[in-house]
């Protein structure tokens, strides 16, 4: 048996980010994504819900989902991502089902990524807000889609028979908001792109005083950098990297 790699691949051609809500990828990973696209990696977003249960004003619920889709597309563009897909599951009610596993497997087979980024299925007790039930469920569903579903030609045979989607093996998965984070990405030089992405989510952040979001998230990224022994003054995003090839 070949030994597992000692760290993540230095570069991949394609990466897929599977998250529960519009803005999830931007709070935890937009800086990392910006470094990937700058290096030539083609990145696709798969957002499981439209975030229709979010927001802080009286926006009608039937308008919130479409608004948040547009906000996510704008945020994606800020970090070099143009392929944004939505699965349309109900916000706040995501369950671990075979249908969800199949739908994520479909996107994996369509995109054929070497790397998948998703949320950790483990609860983070130190920062409970990171462990929204939808986040944990999407993380677990994505891991099940990576292994065994997407790589098994006999799993969801309709994907091959009806849609011509061949099995695909993902080499590595990056888990955000993980209590086991073992890899940090220095995002100091792309942090302005991250701020632009975050501020694109107007329905979610416009209720906060100017600068408060950057102060809060910036302090969080500074602490992450210190935890992972980056030089003083740097900003980082951290992940648990799992080799799945």
TrEMBL record:
Q: Name one Pfam family in it.
A: PIG-L
TM region positions: none
* A molecular function (GO) term: hydrolase activity, acting on carbon-nitrogen (but not peptide) bonds, in linear amides
Print the keywords alphabetically: Zinc
Organism of origin is: Modestobacter italicus (strain DSM 44449 / CECT 9708 / BC 501)
Which InterPro entries is this protein grouped with? GlcNAc_PI_deacetylase-related, LmbE-like_dom_sf
GO biological process per UniProt:
glycoside metabolic process
Q: What is this protein called?
A: N-acetylglucosaminyl phosphatidylinositol deacetylase
């Amino acid at each position: 048996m070949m030994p597992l790699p000692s760290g993540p691949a230095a570069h991949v051609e394609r990466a897929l980010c599977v998250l529960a809500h519009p803005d999830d990828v931007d709070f935890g990973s937009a800086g990392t994504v910006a470094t990937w696209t700058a290096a030539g990696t083609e990145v696709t977003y798969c957002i499981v819900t439209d975030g229709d249960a979010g927001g802080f004003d009286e926006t009608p619920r039937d308008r919130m989902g479409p608004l948040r889709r547009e906000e996510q597309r704008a945020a994606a563009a800020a970090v070099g991502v143009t392929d944004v897909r939505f699965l349309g599951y109900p916000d706040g009610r995501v369950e671990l089902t075979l249908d969800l596993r199949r739908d994520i497997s479909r996107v994996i087979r369509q995109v054929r990524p070497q790397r998948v980024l998703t949320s950790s299925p483990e609860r983070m007790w130190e920062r409970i807000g990171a462990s929204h039930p939808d986040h944990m469920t999407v993380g677990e569903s994505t891991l099940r889609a990576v292994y065994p579903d997407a790589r098994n030609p006999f799993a969801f045979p309709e994907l091959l028979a009806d849609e011509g989607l061949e099995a695909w093996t993902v080499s590595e998965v990056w888990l955000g908001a993980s209590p086991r984070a073992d890899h940090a990405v220095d995002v100091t030089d792309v942090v302005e792109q991250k701020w632009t992405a975050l501020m694109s989510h107007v329905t979610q952040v416009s209720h906060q005083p100017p600068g408060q979001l950057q102060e809060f998230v910036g302090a969080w990224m500074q602490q992450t950098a210190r935890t992972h022994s980056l030089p003083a003054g740097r900003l980082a995003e951290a992940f648990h990297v799992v080799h799945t090839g």
